[in-house]
Amino acid sequence: MDSSRISLRPFKLSDADDLLIWASDDKVTSYLRWHTITSIEAASKYIQEVAIPHPWRRSICLDDRSIGYISVRPESGSERHKARIAYAVGSDYWGQGIVTMAIKMAIPIVFKDFPYLVRLEALVEPENVGSQRVLEKVGFKKEGFLRKYGFNKGEIRDMFIYSFLSIDEIP
Ligand SMILES: CC(C)(COP(=O)(O)OP(=O)(O)OC[C@H]1O[C@@H](n2cnc3c(N)ncnc32)[C@H](O)[C@@H]1OP(=O)(O)O)[C@@H](O)C(=O)NCCC(=O)NCCS
């Protein structure tokens, strides 16, 4: 994938049709905490009520059309040095290096946008090998295995925890 075709930008209400293509796919949401979005009304509501007000949620765009997202949510108060990162891209685009490219673009922006941020964290289910590979390619360090840590789709699941610090280098 030509990196000049990939960009990150805030969501717009006009992304609803494009968002519905990837957000309605159970393959995309199975490792995410949110459920598939199945109508254009729900896609518009999600953009207006979740994506736009989010502290940092960007659309991953191919030729400026939304094909996925990255979100970073910093904690508050004395925990504001930490933030959790999450991401997905439509299944038609898997395996083309797009999320790797998008996270590499996001990291310097996020550390600039949140000056107190020191540590980005990612939680990944053991079966989600593609996501672990992405984090390794981007320079995240695998720190441990958290038993029965995350609640997702009605189940309490094991998770690997990864981190990237503000002093770390993107390979
Ligand atoms: C996981 C996901 C984000 C990866 O995005 P992507 O754009 O396909 O990732 P990239 O192409 O940049 O890299 C994927 C890497 O994983 C590898 N990979 C993918 N599936 C794999 C598998 N089942 N076994 C081994 N390697 C796998 C690819 O070969 C590639 O590595 P390589 O470049 O060394 O060949 C994407 O599949 C997705 O959106 N999944 C659904 C949502 C999700 O799981 N989000 C993360 C929650 S923690």
TrEMBL record:
Identification of the protein by name: Uncharacterized N-acetyltransferase p20-like
Domain N-acetyltransferase: 6-168
GO molecular function, one term: acyltransferase activity, transferring groups other than amino-acyl groups
Top-level taxon: Eukaryota
Any one Pfam family match given in the protein's UniProt record, by short name: Acetyltransf_3
